[in-house]
Amino acid sequence: MNDINTHPELLLDNQLCFTIYACSREITKLYQPYLDRLGVTYSQYLVLLVLWEKNQCTVKELGEALYLDSGTLTPLLKRLQAAGIILRERSTEDERKVLISLTEQGLALQEQAKAIPGMMMEGTGMEAEEFHALLGQFKDLLHRVHEANTGGMRK
Cα–Cα distances in Å, from 57 out to 6, 66, 81, 130? Predict the structure, then answer.
C-alpha cells in the first residue's frame, strides 16, 4: 500500500494558515458569552474597539484599522446604527466621507466591556508575558503579510 503522506508540506497540521484560522475561531468562541451580554457580534465588537479608541473616524479609516473593505463594513455599520450604538453622518467638509461616532449607548458599552480582554487572557491559559509576546509576534506577522499582499515587499 502506498503512503499517501509523502508530502509533509501538504499535511493539514503543517499549515500555518489552518492553525491561525482554527485558533481564531476558537478565540472567537471564547468571546461569545461576553459579547452576547453586550448584545453585539464579534465584528461589531471590533468596530467598537476602534471607536472607543478614536471617538470618531471615517468609514475608510475604520476599514484600514480592521483590514476590511467598505462593502463588508457598510452592512455591519448599518446594523450598529439600527441598534442605536453608532451614528453615521456625512462630513460637512467633504460629503464623500461618512463619519462614524458612538452614541451614548455605544459609549456605555465600553464600561461593560472593560473586563473582556482580561477574561480572554485568562481563557487562553497564558501568563501575561507569554500572551503579550505572542500578540507581538502575530502583529509582526500581520504587518509582513499585509505588506506582501499590498505590494510593499517586492522581490
Answer: 51, 12, 15, 32
Confidence (pTM):
0.89
Name the β-bridge partners of 102.
Answer: 86
Provide the sign of the torsion angle of the four alpha carbons 140, 142, 147, 149, taken in this order.
positive
Are 99 and 93 in contact by the 8 Å Cβ rule? The answer is no
- Please tell me whether residue 118 adopts helix, strand or coil conformation: helix
Q: Provide the pLDDT for residue 146.
A: 94
Torsion of CA 36, 42, 45, 47, to 10 degrees: -150
Please write the tens of the pLDDT for every residue from 88-117. Answer: 999 889 989 999 999 999 999 999 999 999
At CA 103, angle to CA 101 and CA 104, rounded to 5? 140
Burial 17-47 (b: 16+ CB within 10 A, else e): eeeeeeeeeeeeeebeebbeebebbebbbbb
> How many angstroms separate the CA atoms of 27 and 25, rounded?
5
**Per residue in 17-52, pLDDT tens?**
999 999 999 999 999 999 999 999 999 999 999 999
Taking phi first (over 0 means left), then psi (-120 to 50 degrees means alpha), and beta for anything else, what does residue 125 get?
left
